[in-house]
Write a structure and sequence with these properties.
This protein is of the alpha+beta class. About 55% of the residues lie in helices and about 10% in strands. About 0% of the residues have low confidence.
């Protein structure tokens, strides 16, 4: 069977409902200017004004106050038996407040919910409930939005459209449909007036954020103003679906350039895309969490997760672009073992300088280049540009022999974490958008390994991926870093040290890694309870 012509430049399905032409996408030119406008708008939205939107501010303050004040009183009266109980209480209160405040705050909760390891565990677990609890808009509203944006009647475009959505999220909802020309599609429809509400909420958040510094521990290295700025950068990009369609095409090009045949992107329709409407090819497959279903179909789940790790790292380090919001609902596995990526509202885009910094950071982790890693973090924006790199290395004790954390007591572990966090905050460390998205995705892949490939040998995979990168991209890596690619050598002892392992350890399965983590967490929890 002849493959569609657009498969010669993009990672698309073999059975095309329509064929995309790179230079004939009605919305593509608009998307470039929209992205520029968004980047200009964000600083204005996140700069606290002397007078914020007062009506919305009053409502938000009342809802948050009702959630936080009872917790503060209980904490002051020492009514919580443990810090964990206190964290669980405030997390529950904040989740209920977020649901009351509506789509913008629910979206914030969804972003936090995928930040395991970056935010307190209780907050992450509570906010996971925000993912599927957004009520759908009535279909009459959906129909009106479609007809207004496409400029025609619903039945002029669709032979059929399901009135019950496949999914409803904070920004939009998705309906299955059939075009009048017979193709099965998915229609993403934005909620009415969401753009105005988001911008108003961002101004309120920006005004409130400075007052929350040091009062509510949202995250160790992301203070409230920084969190609002990061949130604004991501959510404003999602408010125009022409930009999302452009992201789909750009990621598809990137996957094709990298010869990543294990991933595909659904085709956006060449003309049925507007600010609030996105019509795309419908694909079918296994839910990413359906391990039993995939194995019953004869699919190699280890190969699936391995392909994901390689594609994600290659996209960031070699091409400077990656899907910015990986989670179980945004990808599924086709019957042939390929993975389909969905929902491109958030995409990480690295400038040439930051892409090289990413490359240096990850390469340094496998070659024992501590100085290179810290310099890369500085160049990524995680540390101030004038930071004393040597002093950071000394203060964080990165130049000392790694201690196996499982050999430490709970008290020693807590003190070590506090020491590191205090040192980083003292240097003005922060979490830039691209790094935050990358780490969030790594956290997702970490959890995916636990489900799809728990017996995967992590050390062997690091060695194999390093060898693959050297074979595929050695020359480019050498040019980018200004070094002889032949001189790059994997230092497995450095990799082992990153996991807190002795150099004599030769194998580490993900299951064993999880056991180590659980032991460390248990010791820290037991110490905090004392």
């Amino acid at each position: 069977m002849t493959r569609p012509n657009d498969c010669s430049w993009g990672a698309f399905s073999d059975e095309a409902p329509w064929v995309l032409s790179e230079d004939k996408l009605a919305w593509a030119n608009d998307a470039t200017q929209i992205r520029i406008n968004v980047r200009r708008e964000v600083p204005d939205l996140t700069t606290p004004r002397r007078i914020p939107p007062l009506g919305r501010l009053f409502y938000v303050v009342c809802v948050l106050g009702k959630a936080v004040l009872p917790w503060l009183v209980r904490k002051k009266l020492k009514r919580f038996a443990t810090p964990n109980e206190s964290n669980a209480a405030i997390s529950l209160s904040l989740r209920k407040a977020v649901e009351t405040l509506g789509p913008t705050y629910i979206k914030l909760g969804q972003i936090i919910s995928s930040g395991e390891g970056l935010f307190p565990g209780e907050l992450v677990e509570e906010f996971k409930r925000c993912r599927d609890q957004v009520p759908a808009e009535p279909f009459d509203t959906v129909q009106l939005t479609i007809e207004q944006d496409l400029g025609c009647r619903l039945n002029d475009v669709f032979l059929h459209i399901d009135t019950t959505p496949l999914a409803a999220a904070s920004i939009a909802q998705v309906h299955a449909a059939t075009l009048t020309t017979g193709e099965s599609v998915v229609v993403k429809v934005q909620r009415p007036n969401i753009g105005k509400l988001v911008r108003k909420d961002l101004r309120v958040m920006a005004w409130l954020a400075p007052f929350l510094i040091g009062r509510i521990k949202i995250a160790a290295l992301a203070n409230p103003p920084a969190l609002v700025e990061l949130f604004a950068e991501t959510i404003v990009e999602e408010l125009d679906f022409r930009m999302e369609a452009s992201n789909m095409v750009d990621v598809s090009r990137m996957l094709h350039r990298l010869n990543q045949t294990g991933y595909i992107v659904p085709r956006p329709h060449p003309s049925l895309v507007s600010r609030r409407i996105l019509v795309m090819e419908r694909l079918y497959g296994f839910n990413f969490d359906d391990v039993d279903g995939m194995k019953a179909a004869g699919l190699d789940t280890e190969a699936i997760i391995r392909t994901g790790m390689i594609a994600f790292m290659e996209g960031a380090m070699i091409e400077g672009i990656f899907h910015g919001d990986l989670h179980g609902g945004n990808l599924f596995v086709l019957s042939d073992g390929r993975t389909a990526l969905l929902d491109f509202g958030i995409v990480g885009r690295l400038s040439p300088t930051r892409r090289v910094a990413f490359l240096r950071m990850l390469l340094g982790a496998t070659t024992n280049d501590v100085k290179g890693q810290v310099e890369a973090l500085r160049d990524l924006g995680a540390l101030p540009l004038d930071v004393d790199v040597a002093q950071v290395i000394s203060d964080l004790r990165l130049d000392q022999q790694t201690i196996d954390p499982t050999s430490l007591s709970g008290e020693e572990l807590v003190k070590e974490v506090q020491r590191i966090v205090k040192a980083l905050l003292g240097y003005g460390a922060s979490m830039p958008k691209e790094l935050m998205l990358y780490v969030k995705n790594m956290v997702f892949l970490d959890g995916a390994i636990s489900r799809l490939a728990p017996d995967l040998d992590i050390l062997a995979e690091v060695a194999n991926i390093s060898m693959l990168f050297a074979e595929r991209h050695g020359e480019q890596i050498g040019r980018d870093l200004g070094i002889n690619a032949q001189s790059i050598e994997l230092n497995l002892d450095s990799v082992k040290a990153g996991f807190g392992l002795d150099s004599s350890v030769n194998r580490l399965t993900y299951r064993e890694l999880q056991q180590r983590r659980e032991l460390i967490n248990k010791r820290m929890r037991d110490h905090v309870r004392k």
